[in-house]
Each structure stands twice: as structure tokens, then as C-alpha cells.
Write a structure and sequence with these properties.
Oligomer: heterodimer
Pfam families (chain B): TctC
Helix content of chain B: 40-55%
Protein name (chain B): Tripartite tricarboxylate transporter substrate binding protein BugD
InterPro entries (chain B): BUG (IPR005064), Bug_dom1 (IPR042100)
Shape of chain A: globular
Order of helices and strands of chain A: HHHHHHHHEEHHHHHHHHHHHHHH
Organism (chain B): Ancylobacter radicis
CATH topology of the largest domain in chain B: D-Maltodextrin-Binding Protein, domain 2
Order of helices and strands of chain B: HEHEHEHEHEHEHEHEEHHEH
Radius of gyration of chain B: 22 Å
CATH superfamily of the largest domain in chain B: Bordetella uptake gene, domain 1
Distance between the termini of chain A: 70 Å
Number of strands of chain A: 2
Number of domains of chain A: 1
Helix content of chain A: over 70%
Keywords (chain B): Signal
Structural class of chain A: mainly alpha
Strand content of chain A: under 5%
Chain lengths: 499, 328
């Protein structure tokens, strides 16, 4: 079997002392920057690029990849502990993870995230090894109409994110879309909602919005009410998962892995959707959907697996086609060019030790991550016992550094402060911020793909239903809408029959 | 406690050692790190050019040249930051052809491209290639031009966004053949290339940095090179100058700039380091991988680049105004 030869080659490359060392360095750095709010893999990898000059290409890429998927592991930590998602993928984790932490189950939530990520990462790497070329071909079949249909599906599913009022959730989605549409129009260059502020020309920075609405808003709320904090600190229960917990997370982890692996290969937003989609599905099929939003372990297990699987499979377009699916992959391509390797579809054949070495290192890296992260959980949880008047200025400080580092732009720090205020008001109004963020992410993509599909079809709307993949997804979206609406329809009918 | 104390001493020492630099004379340049601002995201072709040059310049200047990515607003945010930086040579800008086109594309630019910078020198000309989806009918450049003239806006041209190199190349091509196509902008080359390889769009013209790998793998059809000479990395691809469309010529040049008012000695030192970098075998080898080469040394002087920049601004003004696309 060719695949075994290839994997043997990969492991022979990855299992050298030097490469294991760089893999470890990568995942360690990744975990650290993942934990630090706002500081993401993009600025870190950009900073480290000059160092990779002196390394052999395989070692450089192994380390940079480790930073990327390591950050996915670490990113959930602050989301769970202090309601601070530093990246889009951990927004969903914050919903139930933070509630678990408030109930004293922070250790369990972190362990769930680590184990789910490990499982998902390993399976997704296997898919990457065996099916990379056909999966890449599948991703190429996704044109603008298909992406549009996918976004519609995602948007409709987003209503499930809300644990309270559906109307308020819809309002938040719409507000998110409006915020997301600010900035220069991709098609004409016309500025929208920028009020002649040049810093708004590229729209509102996602990290600033997310950290403001979630993290800073939560800090303000905590300061107003010292009581809830004390309760949370006193009740730190066991760190690991009970048998019952294990039973509950198996399903979500498997489904999350599958969903994340598939959505991860789609460039242009597929990976972002995976954790949202996983959460919606878990809530929909759960027998107790009312527990979601109040500390359901399934709401941590599914999305965490999905985002880690997605992180792994998002390497597929980069490695097999030479096309970056996100800014991190664009950086990796930059690293390849600096190393004198021209990225493209031929890299797999011309540099087999590079391709298979990276794939093999991903298993090693995922293993190192779980070994690294499980013992750390105890330390993270103890962090919660630090008195809040010491903890919160530190969090705010790190947030400012993190947000600034995204674009080296102080404007983003003020943006975060403003959205912190808005986040506090939203909490007071009992509006949940997760649908707002989903609207913010999906809104601009929805518009971009819709307009692109219409441009390419030269104004023919039938393009959405004449292509099988897009038609199927739109059908599913209609079905999902029906499922959301049915209970209220049925209720009305029952009311009618009573009379 | 002891650690704290030594840390405090180290900090104080650092503060003391930094203070005199503020008043350092131009003759002492460079006495600390130089920041090279790239007005685009890390990992892109311009960033790669910058990092290769910066690494070599660090060696000849004896101080680190640190690349900082200040992306946004089509490169004008990073350029604006350099225009307003202290004119001491410690903040420099590596920008591409967008430095010239932004003068027309942005009608409310907060700085003046021609008067707010001191040119250090031209770095490289990255050629572009016109590529089509693998199933596109025409076999060569001449057939392509006939095909576009016949199908007009039935042909879909993708680009990496308003003001990008692929956008400029498309505008120039359409104005050269006098036929508009349907233009579909993307956010960056990656997604546009994805749709071209996937056959969703018909045509794109982009830097060899982005296209060479796809051309060699046969995932796209190459129609022609936009610079006068054939490329060493793609010797089989004819140039447009060879006959199909002789007037159509574009290269994505990259230049180095300092803020206006930077002392002449400092500019000369930066230029000397640039010239050394352009003759550095490692830089030449990596540039060759990108399908480009350093510019001839006589074009890399501040005086020649100043004239060249002014000529480029004048060249693009009518093309952009005729297309009626502005970025603000």
C-alpha cells in the first residue's frame, strides 16, 4: 500500500530529534498564545518568520503548523475560564464552557475540550493523510452559489444558538450583520458605515468586537456583582470527567469531528462555521435542549472537536493545491517561498518528505498537546482563585496587548472598550452575544457570495437551484426553518382546536 | 526580590542606553533597529520581497531591519504611517506599484505620494501572467483576445480586490483591447485562484509568485507574460510583446521609501545597503524562485526611482479614471 510507504516516510522525517523538538516548540508556543487573549497565530507566525530563514523547510513548517493547531487548543482556555474568546472558533465554547466554570466545573470543561480536540485532531489528520487529493477536489466544486447556500444554512441554524428569546436572538443576528457590513465594499471600494474614519475602512476588527462584547462586558458585570464571583471560586469541583460525562461527550465529539473535518477543507469561512454548526446540531438533537446555555458539557465537546478537526483539514487546500484557505495558511505559503519552495499542486509529488513529514508531525503534535494540556488544567483552574481585584486588571491588560497586536493599531483597543460597554448593556437587556458574533462573521460573507454568484451567472437567480450542491443545502435550510417554526405553528393549531 | 532588583537595574540601563539614540546624529545611522513597514499582510508576495531584502540589509547595515506588517486600506494605511513617521531613516516603507496607483485610486488620501516621501530605490519588477481556467477554449494569446472581443462581458475576469495588482492588470488589458469583461473581485489572490482552478471564473492576471506553481502543474492555462522578456522559470510561455498585444506591458515593481526630510546621508546609507542586497546571491536565488530578479543597479538609485514613480503615477491616472473605479 502506497499510503503506508508514505506514512513511513513521514514518520521517518518527523521522528528525528530536531523535528520533534520544533514540533514541541510549536505546540507549546501555540498553547501559550492561544491562552493569551487576542494574541493569535497570525502575529506570532509573522514574528517568527525571520527565524525560519535558518531552519530546514520541514522543521520550519512543522513548527509553524504546531503553532496554528496548538492555538486552537489553548484558545478554549480563556473562553471557559473568563468568558473571553480570543478567536472566532472559541466563541461557541464560551457559551456553555463559561457556565460550567461558574458552576465549579471549569476543570471538567477544560478536560473535555482537550480530549475532544485530541480525538478530532487525530482523526482529521488521518483523513488528511488518506483523502487529501479527493477532498481538495471536492472543495473546488464549491463555487460562489454553494458558499451562499452554506451561509444561509448557517444563518438559519444560528437561531438555535440562543437559549432565551428567539426574537432577541434574531435581533442580535441582524445587529451583527449590520456591524459586519461596515468598511469598504469589496466590489466597488465604496466605504459603508465608516463615517470618514480611515481606521474603519477595513471594517470592525473581529477580535476587538468579540473580546469587548464577551470578555470586557463580563468583567464589568462581575465588578457590579461581587457575590456571584465568590460563589464560583468556592465551588471548584473535580478536574476530570466522570463516567457519565464520558457517555455524554462521545456522540458530540464524533459528530463534531466529522462536521469540522468537512467544513475545514472549504476555504473562505467553512472552518469558522464548523463550531457554530456543531453547537446547533447538538442542541437540536439533544433530549434536553433547555440545558444548553446553562453549562451543558455537550456544548463544549462538540464545537471544540469541530474547530480542531477543521484546523487540521484546513491544511488540505494549502498542501495539495497551494491555495491558502485562511490568513495562517497564507503565512505558511510565505514561509515556503522564503524557503525556496514554490507552492502549488506539485509540492506533494516534488517534496514528498515535506508533505508527509508535516502530516506525521500533526499526530505527534496532537499527542504532545494533550500531554501538555491535561496537567496544565489544574494550574488554570487555580487561576480562578486569584482575587478578582488582581485578576481583572491583568485580564484587561492582556486584552489590550492582544487586540493591539492583531493589526498593530491602537484604534482597535478603543473599539474593544466601546464594545465592552455595549456587551454590558446587552447582558442587562438579556440579549446573548453569540448570535451577534455569528451574524458579524456570516453577514459579509453572505453578501460577498451572493453578489459574486449573481455576477458570474450574469444576474440569473436560478443559479442557486440549478446546481445540485447549492440546491440541496438551500433545501436543508428551508427544512431547518420549518423545524424552527413548526413548534409555534403546532401550538397555534392546538390553541385553535381548544376553542 | 533580588530578581526584581536586577530587573529594575536592567530596565534602567536599557532606558539610559536608548535615550542618547534619540539625539543621535545622522552620521551615526543606524545605531538601532530599523523598522521596514510592509503595508500588506504577512505571507503575501510583497511581504516575501520585503523579508528577503530586509535580511540582507540587516547584514550590511549592522543593525536588524525588522519587518512590520501594517495592512489595510489597499496599502495606504501603512504608507500613511511612514509618511508621518520621524524622518530619521528608522522607519522605512516597502511598497509596490500600489504606491503609484493609490494617488488616483484614493481621492481622499491623507498624504501625497509624490511629495511626502524620499525615494530610496527600486527593488524589483515582478512579472505577471495572464492565466485562464484549464477548460477555456482559446489556445494562445491571439485567440484569447479574439475570444474576449467576441464574448465581451460573457467572459468573467477575477481579481484580488480593488487596487490589487490583478485588478490593475485587468484594467490595463481591457483598455488595451478596448473590450470590457465582467470583473469579479475577491478578497485576496487565494480565493480568486481557488475559483479559477475550480472553473468558476474564466481569466485572471497575477504575479508569477502566485501563478507559477499552478501553471507548472497544468491546473490553469497560461496565455502570456506581461513583461518584455520570457521568464527563466516559465520558458515556454510567450510574452504579449512577441506579437499578440505589444502595447500591453505591466510589472509589479517594488520600491523602498523613507519619510520626506530624511537626511541625505541616511538615504545614501539605506540605498547602499539596498544595492548590496540586490547583488546578494541568496536574494537573487530566491527572487528567481519567485520568477523575478533584482532591477538593474542604475534603476535602484533614489534619483531614478523618483522620476520613475512620477511617471508611473502619470501612466495609471488615465487608465483608472477611464475605468471609473475608485477605492474610496
Amino acid at each position: 500500500m502506497e499510503i503506508f510507504d508514505n506514512l513511513a516516510l513521514g514518520f521517518s522525517v518527523a521522528f528525528t530529534f530536531q523535528n520533534i523538538l520544533y514540533c514541541f516548540l510549536g505546540v507549546l508556543l501555540g498553547t501559550l498564545i492561544g491562552v493569551l487573549p487576542g494574541l493569535g497565530p497570525v502575529p506570532t507566525i509573522a514574528m517568527l518568520l525571520p527565524i525560519t530563514f535558518g531552519l530546514p523547510p520541514v522543521a520550519a513548517l512543522i513548527m509553524l503548523s504546531g503553532i496554528y493547531y496548538g492555538a486552537q487548543y489553548g484558545g478554549s482556555t480563556t473562553a471557559i475560564l473568563i468568558n473571553l474568546p480570543g478567536e472566532s472558533s472559541s466563541v461557541v465554547t464560551a457559551i456553555d464552557g463559561y457556565q460550567m466554570a461558574r458552576q465549579g466545573r471549569a476543570g471538567t470543561a477544560l478536560a473535555t475540550a482537550a480530549l475532544g480536540s485530541f480525538f478530532a485532531g487525530s482523526v482529521a489528520t488521518f483523513l488528511l493523510a488518506v483523502f487529501a487529493p479527493p477532498l481538495a477536489d471536492l472543495a473546488l466544486k464549491f463555487g460562489p452559489p454553494e458558499y451562499f447556500a452554506l451561509m444561509v444554512l448557517g444563518l438559519i441554524a444560528s437561531v438555535a444558538l440562543a437559549s432565551g428569546s428567539v426574537i432577541k436572538a434574531l435581533a442580535m443576528v441582524v445587529l451583527g450583520i449590520l456591524l459586519g457590513l461596515s468598511g469598504q465594499d469589496v466590489y466597488t471600494g465604496t466605504p459603508r458605515f465608516t463615517f470618514d474614519v480611515i481606521e474603519l475602512a477595513d471594517g470592525i476588527e473581529f477580535v476587538a468586537l468579540a473580546m469587548g462584547v464577551f470578555g470586557i462586558g463580563e468583567i464589568v458585570r462581575n465588578l457590579e456583582d461581587e457575590h456571584t464571583r465568590t460563589v464560583m471560586v468556592q465551588k471548584v469541583k473535580g478536574l476530570l470527567l466522570s463516567k457519565d460525562d464520558f457517555k455524554r461527550i462521545i456522540g458530540p465529539v464524533l459528530r463534531g469531528t466529522f462536521l469540522g473535518s468537512f467544513l475545514g477543507i472549504l476555504p473562505g469561512g467553512g472552518a469558522i462555521l464548523s463550531s457554530f454548526a456543531s453547537y446547533s446540531i447538538e442542541k437540536k438533537i439533544s433530549r434536553h435542549p433547555e440545558r444548553f446555555g446553562k453549562g451543558a458539557i455537550e456544548g463544549v465537546a462538540g464545537p471544540e472537536s469541530a474547530n480542531n478537526a477543521g484546523a487540521q483539514t484546513s491544511f488540505i487546500p494549502m498542501l495539495t493545491l497551494g491555495i491558502p484557505s485562511n490568513p495562517v495558511m497564507a503565512l505558511m505559503i510565505g514561509a515556503l517561498i522564503i524557503q525556496g519552495i514554490v507552492p502549488g499542486p506539485n509540492v506533494v509529488n516534488e517534496q514528498p518528505n515535506l508533505f508527509w513529514g508535516i502530516v506525521a508531525s500533526m499526530w505527534i503534535g496532537n499527542f504532545l498537546l494533550v500531554v501538555l494540556n491535561l496537567p496544565l488544567i489544574g494550574i488554570w483552574v487555580r487561576l480562578l482563585t486569584v482575587p478578582y481585584h488582581i485578576l481583572f486588571p491583568l485580564i484587561v491588560g492582556f486584552c489590550c496587548i492582544g487586540v493591539y497586536s492583531v493589526n498593530n493599531n491602537e484604534f482597535d483597543v478603543f473599539t474593544m472598550a466601546l464594545f465592552g460597554l455595549i456587551g454590558y448593556v446587552l447582558v442587562k437587556l438579556q440579549c446573548e452575544p453569540a448570535p451577534l458574533l455569528l451574524g458579524f462573521i456570516i453577514g459579509p460573507m453572505l453578501e460577498e457570495y451572493l453578489r459574486r454568484a449573481m455576477l458570474i451567472s450574469r444576474g440569473d437567480p436560478l443559479v442557486f437551484v440549478s446546481r445540485p450542491i447549492s440546491a440541496t443545502m438551500l433545501g436543508l435550510a428551508a427544512l431547518a426553518l420549518l423545524v424552527v417554526l413548526l413548534p409555534s405553528v403546532r401550538k397555534k393549531r392546538e390553541d385553535a382546536f381548544k376553542e | 526580590m533580588r530578581n526584581l532588583k536586577s530587573a529594575a537595574i536592567a530596565l534602567a540601563a536599557l532606558a539610559l542606553s536608548v535615550a542618547p539614540f534619540a539625539a543621535a546624529k545622522a552620521q551615526d545611522f543606524p545605531s538601532r533597529n530599523v523598522t521596514m513597514i510592509v503595508p500588506f499582510a504577512a505571507g503575501g508576495p510583497t511581504d516575501t520581497v520585503a523579508r528577503l531584502i530586509a535580511e540582507s540589509m540587516s547584514r550590511s547595515l549592522g543593525q536588524q531591519v525588522v519587518v512590520e506588517n501594517v495592512g489595510g486600506a489597499g496599502g495606504t494605511r501603512g504608507a500613511g504611517q511612514v509618511a508621518k513617521a520621524a524622518p530619521d531613516g528608522y522607519t522605512i516603507l516597502l511598497h509596490h506599484i500600489g504606491q503609484a496607483t493609490s494617488a488616483t485610486l484614493y481621492r481622499k488620501l491623507p498624504y501625497n505620494v509624490l511629495t511626502d516621501f524620499e525615494e530610496v530605490g527600486l527593488v524589483t519588477d515582478v512579472p505577471m501572467t495572464m492565466i485562464g481556467k484549464s477548460t477555456l477554449e482559446p489556445k494562445d494569446a491571439a485567440a484569447l483576445i479574439a475570444y474576449v472581443k467576441e464574448k465581451k462581458d460573457g467572459v468573467i475576469y477575477g481579481n484580488a480586490g480593488v487596487g490589487s495588482a490583478s485588478h490593475l492588470c485587468g484594467m490595463l488589458f481591457m483598455s488595451a483591447i478596448g473590450t470590457p469583461m465582467t470583473t469579479v473581485p475577491y478578497q485576496g489572490t487565494g480565493p480568486a485562484m481557488n475559483d479559477l482552478v475550480g472553473g468558476q471564473i474564466d481569466l485572471m492576471c497575477d504575479q508569477t509568485t502566485n501563478t507559477t506553481g499552478q501553471i507548472k502543474a497544468g491546473k490553469v492555462k497560461a496565455y502570456g507574460v506581461t513583461t518584455p522578456n520570457r521568464l527563466k522559470s516559465l520558458p515556454d510561455i510567450p510574452t504579449f510583446k512577441e506579437g499578440a498585444l505589444p502595447g500591453f506591458e505591466i510589472a509589479v515593481w517594488h520600491g523602498l521609501y523613507a519619510p520626506k526630510g530624511t537626511p541625505k546621508v541616511t538615504i545614501d546609507k539605506l540605498n547602499a545597503a539596498l544595492l548590496t542586497a540586490l547583488q546578494d546571491p541568496k536574494v537573487i536565488a530566491r527572487f528567481a524562485d519567485l520568477g523575478t530578479e533584482p532591477v538593474a543597479l542604475e534603476r535602484a538609485t533614489p534619483e531614478v526611482h523618483e522620476k520613475f514613480l512620477a511617471a508611473e503615477v502619470a501612466k495609471w491616472k488615465p487608465v483608472i479614471e477611464q475605468a471609473g473605479v475608485f477605492a474610496d
